[in-house]
Design brief:
With 165 residues, the chain is an alpha/beta fold. The protein has four helices and five strands, in the order βαββαβαβα. Strands 3-2-1-4-5 form a five-stranded parallel β-sheet, with helices on both faces.
């Protein structure tokens, strides 16, 4: 991974994204760690080759700003995009707040699609890799879960998943 450029969404301390930042950085990658609040990634601030960016995957403006920052620092290269950001909303169907459910869908389903669309040119240039994190809740029933928007609705794409080096 030495010299590879990686962008990871959802890197708040204590989560999978945060651990991925450390793993990629230790393997020599240049990592763009993102979260809605940069303060939630404070402990990553002084690591070599780690750049902290504020990013909300539900905001076109926030994504556009991140694209510009990555382009400026990398010359327009991105080797790996890890779509890890997400929110959880577990509620029995009879108690679901539709606005909260829509917000969940915006982050967990449309967020990764927005990110892929925004960074596609950089990824195509490097023949990069896209990693979409999901949840087992998309295929395994979870108590009080009406529907898992990311895994449940993106499972149709399973036969079309690809990997490139």
């Amino acid at each position: 991974m030495t010299g590879k450029i990686v962008l990871i969404t959802g890197c708040s301390a204590g989560g999978i994204g945060h651990a991925l930042v450390l793993a990629f950085q230790q393997r020599g990658a240049i990592v763009f760690a993102t979260a809605r609040s940069v303060k939630k990634m404070d402990d990553l601030a002084n690591l070599p080759n780690v750049h902290l960016l504020s990013l909300d995957v539900t905001s076109a403006e926030s994504i556009a700003t991140a694209v510009k920052e990555v382009e400026a620092k990398t010359g327009g290269r991105l080797d790996v995009l890890v779509n890890n950001a997400g929110v959880q909303y577990v509620m029995p169907a009879i108690h679901v707040n539709i606005d909260k459910a829509k917000d969940t869908f915006e982050a967990n389903y449309w967020g990764p699609i927005r990110m892929v669309n925004a960074f596609k040119d950089m990824l195509l240039q490097t023949k990069g890799t896209i990693v979409n994190m999901s949840s087992i809740a998309g295929i395994v029933p979870v108590p009080w879960s009406s529907k898992h928007p990311h895994g449940g609705y993106s499972s149709f794409a399973t036969p079309y998943k690809t990997r490139s080096n």
